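Troubleshooting: if your tokenizer reports a length mismatch, compare your output against this known-good record of 339 residues.
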Amino acid sequence: MRRCVALILPLAVLALAGCQDWQSALHPRGPEARHLDDLFWLFTWILTAIWVAVMVAVALAVFSRSRRRTVHPDEPLATNERAERRYTGVVWTLVSATGAVVIGLSILSYASQQRLFGHKGEGVNIRITGHQWWWEIRYEDPRPDRIVTTANEFTVPVGQPITLKLTSDDVIHSFWVPSVMGKQDLIPGRENLITFTVDKPGIYRGQCAEYCGLQHAHMGMLLHVVSREEFDAWQQAQLQDAAAPDTEERRQGQELFQKKPCVMCHQIRGTQAGSRVGPELTHLASRRYLAAGTVPMSRGNLAAWIVDPHGIKPGVNMPLIKLEPDELNAISAYLEGLK
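Known-good structure output:
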């Protein structure tokens, strides 16, 4: 009994872990996601019915063969020509039905492409570039001074069409926020498009869905869906330069950041840090997570990430930087103030 409980309990916990709906294709929050959900359940019920029918047919065949052996115990290979012809007709009927089902489902799946990837009208245009292992997110605008760049977390207005232009800087990635859209690949040298609308505010988690290297599992993202007014306020805040340090420790942190190798990879608008090799850090502390959804945002996690990124995310491209304890404290305090 104890062994059964010990086996069932972990399985039950694992199953219940899937009940959270912030990263679930079975909890659609937009028309594209609902269409995919409807398609999924249609395929599931049709294929379940076919499986049940096949199991019933197998059971009947086994029973029929056993009965024939009882009637003709001395002739186990005896056949009935009339019955065999009838069975042949049944087989051909089922083969034809199988072909019709496969063709029908294929046509239905193909017809869904237009609904999922068709143009939805004017809305927010976002260019997303996949890196090993983080997402570069750039809000396009005809005015260069209105372009917003962030990383791993992005915000969109509820009820409006969103167009994502997807590409990759290194290997093939796949962009997927299950609650609001289907998957789409990011391929080096090519631009793929995906459009979607979200009709319920909230926070939805996404994930790279194409194996892209050692830290593929730690290449997550967050989609924040807010009202149009909140989106405009967020965008305006993101357009501002980094806030000036408000304490002596943070001022020291800013100076150290610009003297250390950090400045060679990251951009913080309003400072001398202007590189775009790594993620944009101008409003780093406004994000919920560090390292593409790996750990929650906090000063402690910032310090741990700075001093040993490979201990949190082995294989990441961020190099180790030798810092004294006071230097680490000052830099983490400065980054914590970038909201």
